[in-house]
Prior knowledge:
By secondary structure, the protein is α+β, with helices and mostly antiparallel strands. The chain has ten helices and five strands; from the N terminus they run ααααααααβαββαββ.
Amino acid sequence: MHLAFVLLLGASLTRFVVHHPGAARVPWVIGLSVALAALYALGPAARAADGWTVRRHRLWLAAVVVAWVVVVLLAPSFAWCAIPLFYTGLRTLPERAAITLVAALTVLVVISQLRLADGFDPNLLLLPIAVAGLATAVFLHMQRQAVRQHALIDDLVRTRRELAATERRAGALAERQRLAMEIHDSLAQGLSSQQMLLQAAARTWDTDPATARTHVTTATSIVARNLAEARAFVHDLAPADLADGGTLHDALRALADRESAESGLPVRFHLDGSPGGLPPAARAALMRIAQGALANVREHAGASAAVITLSYLGDQAVLDIADDGRGFDQAAGTDREGRGHGLPAMRARLRQFGGTLTVESGAGEGTVVTATVPLESP
């Protein structure tokens, strides 16, 4: 718009000088044109430097319009410089005041064009009105679109900040849940085993020192294993039994042997099917579930034996941990899920892989915990 104003001003001055050579008003028109150009240039320069207030911009616009009116009264050919002034007024003034200014400038343009014409021409009456109306409508529409766009951008920025905050909270909660499950399935079980072994050693320390030393030695090995587990879950690694590329069935077999030796509860392991297709994270989850289920058997079931069965059945892997303990009445709501973190943690682990957990038990009938995980496609 600024360039258009300068070009229209120069073209109008050239036309006037060519059509009115030697006229007495030529020096006045030239001087006023130069002054109008200099006055107009102050506005963009001050806006770029951000040195003027809104009030000063409006005073500047008023001065430009007055100077332009004077030039138009002396030379009607300068009337078309009004088009850039339309946009300048629309940008500077409130909407109603800007529309009033555009209407006044349009009337002056129509009068100037009729003065230049040899006779009445309806185009000279309608064309300035159409141009002014179109320019005003386009500008106001674009301005309203820009306001809506700015509001939308503000909403998007605010939403993105809220989403980032929500993701941070969700990440913190997920990490807390991970640590809770890891502590429950590894450290808590080890501490429970150590407590039972040390209590047994304390009871037999005077009467059977050899057995007491055996219990202490076993507790020491559990401490070492718990230390390895702690380092593993701090670094979000697999269980220690699965480290260095160990297989799930070998880890479960070692878990059964270790549980039998440490707690005195006979635990057998059985593998059914051909191992394969189980993601590393799912193997770690099943290992933790087996540890948690055996901890429940040891602490609550009062069982005389337990069996771990890992089965590969087509498109899924199934882990069963069964015991012949006292069981519980699921219909009466007396299961251990409401008393601890074990079963909810198991279900949370399995949901990450699309797996499910089922518990079958009855009073005096033992308990079977079944974890099912889909296998990866070959």
